[in-house]
Amino acid sequence: PTGALALLLGTLLWAPWRALHGAPLAELSGDQDFQLFLHKNLEFTRKIKGDVAALQRVVCDTFQLCKEEELLLVRQDLGMAQAPLEQCRSRTFQAEACFSQIRDGLRTYHGSLAAVLELLPGHASLVETLQLDAANLSSNIQQQMEDLGLATVTYPTEEQGPLPTFSSHFHHQVGGFFILANFQRFLETAYRALRHLARL
């Protein structure tokens, strides 16, 4: 099932954005404040992606955990879910639904980064910066939704309760690896959604 999931994820991540051009957002796209918000947060998202990549390199160097395909069996044991972003890809793309999922996902990753912090105490400042940036980007999006009068939608998050409990130090290391890998994929999709909106 993991292979099928990876295939599905791959398909979704590369889903053509052409389908989104019927978005009911034309009236917002000319709004200068909205465009400024998009461009600022595109830069911000790019910075966060860079920090996640730096932590991924640390996990690779420190624990020799570098390749996702080598860890898929352990991933199944851990049952780690990706924060959903299907509303940012769907054919019936709506800004409020997509923004809500980006905001909620950022909050989820902000929480799960605590497991990475425990794993890499020597890199606490980078992990804490990442948590702060995730919180700030989430509140930027919340504020922008309020400014635009967009309805806030809260999606039920599956399996996003408290942090997973890892049965061994190795599982904790692999868990940290997948938190970062999932966060990086999440940011890629969020980045593409923001960039799409900026081009409308």
From TrEMBL:
Sample GO molecular function, one term: granulocyte colony-stimulating factor receptor binding
Superkingdom classification of source: Eukaryota
Annotated family: Belongs to the IL-6 superfamily.
One GO process term, biological-process aspect: immune response
Entry keyword Glycoprotein: yes
Protein name per the record: MGF factor
Cellular component, GO annotation: extracellular region
Endpoints of the signal sequence: 1-22
Main location: secreted
UniProt entry keywords in alphabetical sequence: Disulfide bond, Glycoprotein, Growth factor, Secreted, Signal
Pfam families (UniProt xref): GCSF (PF16647)
Protein's cellular compartments: Secreted
InterPro entries cross-referenced by the UniProt entry: 4_helix_cytokine-like_core, GCSF/MGF, IL-6/GCSF/MGF, IL6/GCSF/MGF_CS
